[in-house]
Write a structure and sequence with these properties.
Blueprint (H helix, E strand, L loop, with lengths): L5 E5 L6 H11 L3 E3 L3 E2 L14 E2 L2 H9 L3 E7 L2 E6 H9 L3 E5 L2 H10 L5 E6 L3 H11 L4 H15 L7 E4 L3 H18 L16
Parallel strand pairs: 1-7, 1-8, 2-7, 3-4, 8-9
Antiparallel strand pairs: 3-6, 5-6
């Protein structure tokens, strides 16, 4: 059985990454979403265990002490972390995993070399459009919006560290582009678009 690929995807808050990834995962078989742990409270519509594992800060700190995270970082005053065991288990089973983490977490993975991954940055068309989307969510205070925009400007500086850059302007086009990247990476590792290993076609 072939080993699954890890796709590390980062984007400023409000870029539309969650909607994009749901569409891509509905379109491409054999993809799994790595559910991160976080200390932030759930947003309306989010489900524990599906969108995030929502835990208390003391519980999160205990997990750090036990070495359970592949990476962890503080973002917008909340802690986020990726389960080491969950990623290993899925990749060894031949499943491609989408890891949605911020630029801090991606930098940690690159620096430590703990996993092999393809790094994809999802960018808004502009800061003005990002502000429009953040305000349209109607979930954050003015102070939080200002902080997220400032963080976005910093995060955009990390684009150069990613292998792929995807601009989330027209959603349908963005879904097609991100899907094409995943399918192309499967072809690089001698797998069908579905994720199934091609094997030795000369002796089939």
């Amino acid at each position: 059985m072939s080993v699954g690929k890890l796709f590390v995807i980062s984007a400023p808050s409000g870029t539309g990454k969650t909607t994009l990834l749901k569409r891509v995962m509905a379109k491409i078989p054999g993809l799994s979403f790595s559910v991160s742990h976080t200390t932030r409270p759930p947003r309306p519509g989010e489900r524990n265990g599906a969108d995030y594992h929502f835990v208390s800060k003391p519980e999160f700190l205990k997990m750090i002490d036990r070495g359970l995270f592949l990476e962890h970082a503080e973002v917008h005053s909340n802690l986020y972390g990726t389960s080491r065991a969950a990623i290993d288990q899925q990749c060894k089973a031949g499943i491609d995993v989408i890891l949605d983490i911020d630029v801090q977490g991606a930098s940690i993975l690159r620096r430590t070399g703990q996993v092999k991954a393809r790094y994809i940055f999802i960018s808004p068309p502009s800061i003005m459009e990002l502000e429009k989307r953040l305000r349209g969510r109607k979930t954050e205070s003015e102070e939080m919006i200002t902080m997220r925009l400032a963080n976005a400007r910093t995060e955009l500086l990390a684009i150069k560290d990613y292998e792929y850059l995807v601009i989330n302007d027209l959603l349908d086009d963005t879904v097609d582009l991100l899907s094409s990247i995943i399918v192309a990476e499967r072809a690089r590792s001698h797998r069908f678009p579905s994720g199934r290993a091609i094997g030795n076609i000369l002796h089939s």
